[in-house]
Amino acid sequence: MPPDQQSLAAGSGSRENAPAKRALGPQLLGLLVFLAASALVAGLGGLATANNVDGWYATADKAPWSPPNWVFGPVWTALYTAMAVAAWLVWRSRAEGTRPALTAYAVQLVLNLLWTPVFFGLYPSLGTPALWIAFVIIVALAVAVSVTVLYFGPISRAAGLLLLPYLAWIVFASSLNLWMALNN
User: Fold this and answer.
1) What separation in angstroms does the CA of 23 have from each of 27, 152, 166?
2) What is the mean pLDDT of residues 30-37?
3) Positive or negative CA dihedral for 136, 141, 146, 147?
4) What is the pLDDT of residues 84-109, one digit of tens each?
5) C-alpha angle 147-178-101 in degrees, rounded to nearest 5
6) pTM above 0.85?
7) Which terminal residue of the chain has fewer beta carbons within 10 Å of its beta carbon, N or C?
8) Percent with pLDDT over 90 in the chain
9) How far is CA 156 from the centre of its chain?
10) Can you state the percent helix, strand and coil of the chain, rounding each to 5?
11) 8-state DSSP, 14
């Protein structure tokens, strides 16, 4: 039984101690803000990727386990959507620890935003050092996502679970990045 119903069932007759419910409008607006933030990061990453996927990246030495290019778009779309929903679930909970959890989320989102232009955009001018810088960023991103999962989980189990595929993908992408740094 939800906490607000438990207090009523216990005979308090008052909802003063129950968490305030947010109206549907602000909840939807909050979800749209988190989805927009994810879309912005995805869009900016796409700009950095667009000119280089068919450029230097097409002829680069890639890991044997590297998926075809068409896989990345659908995977990232699903991951960015799950990330936004997870952040929204934490935000709407109004639970203790929400602020540091969303701060960790913002940090990982910024690292996510940094990785793509460094990996794809700097390689033509810096060469292999750009791939090593990108590797440092993606390792930091994996740590930041792990921290975010640890913050989100106690607030919303669903939110923590929604980030696990993202963390797995970041670890996988780290292996691709490392291979390219070692072999290009």
Assistant:
1) 6, 22, 30
2) 89
3) positive
4) 999 999 999 988 999 999 999 999 99
5) 10
6) no
7) N
8) 65
9) 16
10) 80, 0, 20
11) -
